[in-house]
Predict the structure.
Amino acid sequence: MRQLAVLLVCCVLVGCAGGPIGVLHPVATSAPGASRIDLLVATTRAHSSDESILFSGERQQGTSFTALSVSVPPDERRQIGQVQWPRSLPPNPLTEFATLDVKSVDGLSGAGRWLRTNAPRNRRVLIFVHGFNTRFEVAVYRFAQIVHDSGADAAPVLFTWPSRGSVFEYNYDRESANVSRDALEALLQRAAKEPGVGEITILAHSMGAWLATEALRQMAIRDGRVAPKIRNVILAAPDLDVDVFASQWRSLGDHAPQFTIFVSRRDRALGLSRSIAGSVERLGRIDPDAKPWLSQAGIEVIDLTGQESADIFRHAKFADNPEVVRFLGAQLINGDAAGDSSVSFGERVGGVSMGVAQSVSGATGLAIGAPVAVVDPQMRRSYSEQVNQFMRAIDNTVTAGSGW
């Protein structure tokens, strides 16, 4: 029954996913009141022959660097926590995300120059590593949304590894993350050695959390410690074996950066991952009280179990819940670490229950991975109720704690 449920959900969601291909072709102008987000992108993906796609989900040797600028619609025209995906091309920058500029960057030396030019006065850099089932353009637009909605006061850098953007390519994506470890470590080393950079925060989601932590482990083994400028590591819904993380953490030694982990015991995507991985719990789905060694190790855990998400898999709360994404920017990227104990997010913000029901106008986002793959709003509305009914049936069928 669990296998059938997974198959049916995947088929429904793959059928629903859509939107125009080629959104990275720059538009001539933005719109009044729109925000411009300038990103540096480092990728181990293979180049696409289509300049409006830029990079595919296949692998390449080495790392390519690109500077992209994304236009985010005026705040009064959009819902915080959501990517307004173009319905057709060219996009309308007044109501939709749009690409403004794309420029190739000359390797790690060019990346250093970009950092020197774009780092704010506080010299802070934010490096984002996405998760499973993420096309290149989805990674770019989702990160632009996170930077904008969190109010991150940092130079934003996206590290995007080869994902084919398919729910049926879990193993390919996982091995692509393996292949990309050295490239991510090299990027972190370059950023840490750049005089214009004062502090680095890493934000990694889902499968990207394994990649980020593994790159830091390599650095610690190679250099004897993690680079001191890497101060904060935020793991959002990490798709990471909890025992593997414990081993990685020990390898970081006495000078490990501050770790903050967003967890949710209602994360359906990690429930499925747990089933695939031999029923070993994923780090992003733990009960903090059941893993006391986490707090003893100096790792902060923020429990988002009670928070809502626009994603039916409840896997992207860090980005699509308006209050969570604002907290991410104000407290973790721009401000202090989370705190000194493992508590719920509601307790962090004064016990007020926050959600996204109003922000998505009652329509469930049909996300098929991590980050959320945004689809056409009309298509989302037409499928939302039948998907909700199906997911409720799965919840009633699956044994608690056993995944899908």
